[in-house]
Write a structure and sequence with these properties.
- 37% of the residues lie in helices and 18% in strands.
- The chain has 500 residues and is an alpha/beta fold.
- Helix 2 crosses helix 3 and helix 18 packs parallel to helix 20.
């Protein structure tokens, strides 16, 4: 991108939230005292690039021009953060001074940090940059150490050192390196969870219908084991969902090995997590745990221990699938379509309702503790289970039940049947020339009567009736039944507990 006489312009980009914002790096050479001036709302990391670039160019055998260099990062109203501007600024300086060939630079996007010896180092967000380059049909020039084979169809060029540009970008060539996979931690097998067959079936139903789940039980009953194994029965990540998750995790600097293998993200923040850590924020603004759990599972262990103000921020992401953060720099929207799984003790000591261990908590303490389990966030949770300690005899004898393979097959069949049912409904709508499709669950009269009786006896709200019907629809899909039957309604009610 020529910038006229005595200058040059290079394509670059920066991360804003989880989006890639294009930036044009304009280089102008003028007479005056040698030095480099940067304009365009650059943060400290960008300003420090002057020293890194000067040392890197000399180490690579290039000359730093003894002229005044003005670097403009356009657009000027967007704050530029990170060290990824080292490479495009250096390339602009070398192109403006005629030290490297300028052919093929126009169709390239440069992102990378420079070491003092001229090496090109990776930066956070490499997957997001690859997705942007593919969408804009640009050739991404980045560090050789970046995750090269993550995004299919991306035209990438790997640089080990800026000295390679002396022969021209066309001489570097595209390099396709396998990303570091490393050891991927397996979610574990439900075979190891003994004596919780009803809870395992509930987990399979939750996975099949993407329902949120709350488990309440005494310590040692297996709540965490049930939650940690849920990603193992979910369908593997693929296509756009996989790319979204990879982009978010690369921006946050998280490992990508499991996502590359198709394992859905599983996030388990501690109950001391801050509001910005859960929803997103900070300076610069970065995605939080709800976004890192996008297309995966967010597990909140010891739900009642989380601060009330932090829990309340989950209401909007649970409804919309997007976490919206407003800061001085502007508004940010983070993808947050996750499956919420929560676990809690019934009281502070954990023994309330245990037939063998007496509860030592006062009534006032129990009431304060359980207030968080019945608030607005808990009201948005589809399924609620009471988890009892398994019989010691079953654990000692090693009684076998449902395995992850069995539950994965149940989930796969249920989702396939639901997809077939939805396609059939769409075809019926098209044939009948109906403008608006009716999404209410189809059920015979006896099922409607059973649902109505339960709604009246339990004083269900409109939200409660809707969630009960959704769970019943998933149970019917698992049974490969086109219609919801009374038995499906009754089983769904067992997974809703006594909540309205």
């Amino acid at each position: 991108m020529s910038a006229g006489r005595g200058g040059y312009a290079v394509r670059a980009a920066c991360i804003r939230g989880v989006e890639v914002v294009p930036v044009t790096v304009e280089i102008d050479l003028s007479d005056g005292l040698p030095g480099m001036t940067m304009v365009g709302m650059a943060d400290t990391a960008v300003m420090e690039a002057r020293s890194r670039i000067r040392c890197a160019l000399r180490a690579a055998g290039f000359e730093m021009p003894r002229r005044h260099i003005t670097v403009n990062l356009a657009p000027g109203d967007v704050r530029k953060v990170g060290s990824g501007f080292d490479l495009p600024i250096a390339v602009g300086v070398l192109a403006a001074t005629g030290q490297i060939p300028v052919r093929e630079l126009d169709g390239a996007l440069f992102v990378g940090e420079l070491a003092l010896d001229g090496r090109v180092c990776p930066v956070k967000g490499e997957v997001a940059y690859q997705l942007y380059a593919r969408r804009e049909r640009l050739r991404l020039v980045e560090s050789r150490e970046a995750h090269r084979a993550v995004v299919d169809g991306a035209d990438t060029c790997a640089l080990e050192s800026i000295a390679q540009l002396r022969a021209g970008l066309s001489e570097v060539g595209a390099t396709r390196l396998e990303p570091p996979r490393g050891a991927v931690r397996a979610p574990g097998d439900y075979r190891d969870v003994i004596g919780q067959e009803m809870a395992k079936r509930a987990c399979a139903i939750a996975a099949a219908g993407s329902h949120s789940l709350l488990m309440v039980g005494s310590p040692g009953s297996g709540k965490s084991m049930l939650a940690q194994r849920l990603p193992g029965i979910l369908p593997p990540l693929a296509g756009a969902q996989k790319e979204e998750a990879l982009a978010i995790h690369s921006i946050a600097g998280e490992p990508l090995g499991g996502l590359i293998e198709g394992v859905r993200p599983f996030r388990c923040p501690h109950h001391t997590v801050s509001l910005a850590g859960l929803i997103g924020g900070g300076r610069p603004v970065r995605p939080g745990e709800v976004s890192l759990a996008h297309n995966g599972v967010l597990f909140l262990d010891e739900l009642a221990e989380f601060p009330a103000n932090v829990l309340q921020t989950l209401r909007q992401p649970m409804e919309d699938g997007v976490a919206r953060v407003v800061r001085v720099e502007g508004a940010f929207a983070f993808p947050a379509r996750f499956q919420l799984v929560a676990a809690s003790n019934p009281c502070p000591c954990g023994n309330l309702g245990d037939p063998e261990r007496p509860c030592t908590c006062s009534a006032a303490r129990v009431e304060r503790y359980q207030e968080k389990l019945g608030g607005p966030v808990a009201d948005r949770i589809d399924m609620a289970l009471t988890i009892r300690r398994p019989d010691p005899e079953e654990i000692v004898l090693g009684v076998e039940g449902l395995t992850s393979e069995d539950m994965r097959a149940m989930v796969t069949r249920s989702r396939a049947f639901a997809a077939w049912r939805a396609a059939k409904a769409d075809e019926r709508t098209r044939v009948n020339c109906v403008n608006k499709r009716d999404d209410r669950p189809v059920m015979p009269a006896e099922a409607e009567e059973a649902l109505l009786a339960l709604a009246r006896s339990a004083h269900l709200t409109g939200r409660g009736i809707t969630r009960l019907a959704r769970i019943a629809r998933t149970i019917a899909d698992m049974a490969e039944s086109e219609h919801i039957l009374p038995g499906h309604i009754r089983e769904a009610a067992a997974y809703r507990g006594n909540r309205a």
